[in-house]
Each structure stands twice: as structure tokens, then as C-alpha cells.
Amino acid sequence: MLAARLANGASKAGTDNAFGDEQLDVDLAADEIIFQEFMSCGAVAVAASEEKPVEAPMGGSSERLYSVGFDPLDGSSIIDANFAVGSIFGVWPGDKLLGRTGRQQVASCMSQYGPRTTMAVALSAVTTGGDAVAFELTFQSDVQRWVVTREKFDIAPAGKVFAPGNLRATADQPAYKRLFDHWVDNRYTLRYTGGMVPDVYHILIKNKGVFSNVSSAAAKAKLRLLYECAPIALLIEAAGGASVMAPSPGAASGGTPLSVLDVEIDNLDKRLGLCLGGKEEVDVFNRFMFG
Amino acid sequence: MLAARLANGASKAGTDNAFGDEQLDVDLAADEIIFQEFMSCGAVAVAASEEKPVEAPMGGSSERLYSVGFDPLDGSSIIDANFAVGSIFGVWPGDKLLGRTGRQQVASCMSQYGPRTTMAVALSAVTTGGDAVAFELTFQSDVQRWVVTREKFDIAPAGKVFAPGNLRATADQPAYKRLFDHWVDNRYTLRYTGGMVPDVYHILIKNKGVFSNVSSAAAKAKLRLLYECAPIALLIEAAGGASVMAPSPGAASGGTPLSVLDVEIDNLDKRLGLCLGGKEEVDVFNRFMFG
């Protein structure tokens, strides 16, 4: 339904002088559709979104209740250019979000609206009782149903594909600049749409690569822990990859790398830089950024 | 129709072990659909595609006949990742393609299949009798019709957004490496999906930016003049931007920049490097690459 609304409603975003208001309408329409679904599903206790960053009660009354943090439409800067965009969902057991960590999620999901409508889903170790798993579903519009199109994402430790976010931070973050030069000098393949969903989705589908978003004093971190980073980190780690929180711009070097899944959501709007991808690729990031 | 076929047929491209064959199927299905349309439309004399690079007679018999070069589905490496992809068409008057230049086109078109189905169309100065123009259409699926969503693309001379293609060529092309560093050091915004259609579409929609694809001895030029470069150069120049053929890897420096529209199609499979975008941005490219 969201994909269909996007296909028609968002077309207005391409009209002249309509970037501001119309664009906003699409984000808010997606937000509203998703909150309505949660209100009617019965299993959601509270939900908070990047658009409405408060824990809103969803009236759930089933035996097992969940709490959801979500970004209704990630990639708002590229919607007008008709690039693939997506929604992100993190699901926690119980009735609160504040004070949790990404590792406590039972599942997370990233849907992508491109030529097709697809979805990458992660089930945590808590949920599977064994290893975490991540897989892909695709909506087949001719038969109106979701089908499994990839049974298991399995990210290789090393893989020379890079998505260097917030590249402008290299101008006043020497360590990030050196890491960036390392990727370029070693002939990594560049893929960077500017939307976190497609950029991470590319790593999952190709089973390799690295995504980074590092802040500097002049180029601040923009990614949200609850709505973007934690759900996506669960997907990547469930797919055999690694995640790490980037050091703060002002931090002294030599800090300890911490998985994004272990960062506490101490503020619903908490923002951070990070790196995600193949385990060896994240090790390279750590060497340059924490070394 | 092509977008719908893509939405369902291409979903197979996401299945395990299906990258080769299934992917090919989508490209070929698009090729077949487009050739069939040309055969039945009556106005096409000959057509050649990136998939079938020969001038095939299309049985046209109307008073005014046209010849078409096209890429049925550009961006095959990113279809499985569900990124936006597209088709490219260049239209020439008469009944041949070989020996023509891009400047002789009457029109060109780039359709894009993302969350929406959109199309950027250029009408040449020959066609308008005045200035060339470029505009956008969007298919509204709820009412099944195309509507104009941008009356005029108008690319600003300067604009700090860059899409650096074939980045690996910087490893053995020092001039391209210096240009790349110039973009990074000057805090240009990076957008590079790896598909020429969305990467150029971004410049049109944002009214600014620069796209480059430069070859080196180790990283060859892959873009085709007839099916990709000439139609897209018409779009960019009709939108007020500039295009230039990149110097050959082995060429001595100091050559003269030549618009992509003035390069002769002396081979239906001719390949080249290029730069496209705002006029001042292309001037910067020329200074680094021809200086």
C-alpha cells in the first residue's frame, strides 16, 4: 500500500517549486499509514518514528506485546530524483524503547521501493533461539503476495565495494580522509546513492561491501540510532557482518570500538556516525578511525 | 508495460544463483518489448540496441521516418539490488544510424523505473526550431496516463554534486585522480548509484552537478556512444548543460575538448569516456583533463 501511495503521491515531488511542501507530504503520508497499521494490529504497545519521536501508545492488547521504532521514508533528499528509497523498522519486546539497545531487538526490517518492492528482514538470536538470520522477500504485484527471494544473506568478511557517507567530513577529519584514500587507492568499487536503505541493501544483495557515515566538527552526524542505525545494524550482523559506532569528532584517538547494537538508546532522537559491512572491512575502518 | 514487466519478472534476479541467466532475461525481455513497439508503430525505419547492435529494419512506412538507437535496460549490475534503473533512446531523422552524430538527433529520452515511472525527454533545436528543451513526464498509475511534472530542466553552470564514474581509473590516470581530489577537497556532495540513468537523472532533477566516466589503460571505457552517450548528451545540453568526450587513456595532453554531440558514430558499438553536467563543472573537467 505504501509503495502504491508513493508511486502516485510522490510524483508531485517532481513538480517545480514543490520540493519543500509536497516532499513533506509523502513522508507524513507514509508515517500516518504505518501508525494506522500498528494501531489496528493489536500487538504493538508503543511506537515512535523519525517523524514523531515520542513513544506513542498503539493500543495493543495481545499476550505478547512489542515496541517499534521506525523511519517511515528514509532518503527524502532523493525521492524527487526517483531513486529507490525505503522504510526501516526495529522491533523490541515489551512496551518501551528508551533505555534499550539494538541487541535487544527481536527483529528488524528494511523495505525498499524501487522498480520492485522488496524487504530485508532480520530475526535476532533471541528470536531464533540460535543464530540470527537475515533474508529477503519480494512483493509480486501480479499475484499480490510476498515471496522469499533470498533465503539467507551472508556477507563476506572482505569485499571491495564502498559507500562513503558524509564525505564532506573528510575535509576536517584527517583519519576519515586517510581511510577514504585507502578505499580509492585500493580500487574499491563506489556505490553511494545517498539513501541509507539502498546503500545498505546493496551490501546485503551483493554479499559484500562497507558503508560508513562519519561526522566532523563541520559536518555533523545525521543518522538516528533508534529509527535507522539499530535496526540496520541488526540486519547486517544477522547477515554475518559487523557494525561499529564511529568515534565522536572531538574524541581523543584510541577509544574502543563498540557494536552499534550495544549503544544505549538514551534519547529517542540520539544521532551517531557508524560503519557497517563485512567483518574485515569494519576492521579496516577500526584500524584507521580508532588506531 | 516495461515497468510492470520489470516489477514482476525482474524479481527473479534477486534469487540465489540466478544473477547470470535471470538477469539476462530481464534485459532481453525489455529489448523484445521495445523492438515490438517499433515494429508496430510505423514511423521507425531502423533500430539498433545495446543488446542487438545492428541496424534492423522496423518496417516503418509513414511519410516521416526515424531511426532509433537504444539501451533497453541500463544499469544491469544494480537490478538485483532493486536500485532505480532505466532505458535510453536516441531518435534520428531518416533511415540510418551509422555515420551520424548526436547533434543530428531530433529527440532523445531517458525513462527511469524507480518508486515511480518517470521520463526525461529532450527535443533538439532542429525539432523546436529554436532552443533545445528538456522536460519530465511521470506516469500516474492510478489514472494510467503520463503527466508533465517538470516543464523545463535548467542546469545551473556551477553546482557541487558529483558522480565520479569508473573511479578505479584514478589509480593509473593521474589527471583524473587530481580532478577527483579537487571534488572531494572542495566538499562536493557525492551521488553515485552505478547506473548512468539515475546518476544523470539526479543532475536534471536537482538542476546541478557533474557526471564523469574516464577510462585508463587498466580500466577501459564501457559507455556506448549510440545507445547511451549521444542520447544523454542531448538531454544535458538541451537542459542548458555541457558534455565533452574524455581524452583517450593513451592520448598526449593538450587535445581539444569536443562535445559528445559532435562525435561521429563510426561504429555501432563505439565506446568512450565523457563528462556531463553544468557548464562550469565541465570546464573544470576540461581544465584538469585537457590542461
Automatic annotation (TrEMBL), chains A, B:
GO terms for cellular component: cytoplasm. It holds the Pfam family FBPase_C. It comes from the Eukaryota. The keyword Magnesium applies. Residues 4-125 form the Fructose-1-6-bisphosphatase class I N-terminal domain. The keyword Transmembrane helix does not apply. Pathway: Carbohydrate biosynthesis; Calvin cycle. Residues 155-289 form the Fructose-1-6-bisphosphatase class 1 C-terminal domain. Its EC number is 3.1.3.37. Keywords: Carbohydrate metabolism, Hydrolase, Magnesium, Metal-binding. Its cofactor is Mg(2+). One of its GO terms (biological process) is fructose metabolic process. PROSITE patterns: FBPASE. InterPro entries: FBPase_C_dom (IPR044015), FBPase_class-1 (IPR000146), FBPase_N (IPR033391), Fructose_bisphosphatase_AS (IPR020548), SBPase (IPR023079). PANTHER family: FRUCTOSE-1,6-BISPHOSPHATASE-RELATED, SEDOHEPTULOSE-1,7-BISPHOSPHATASE, CHLOROPLASTIC. This is Sedoheptulose-bisphosphatase. It comes from Ectocarpus siliculosus.
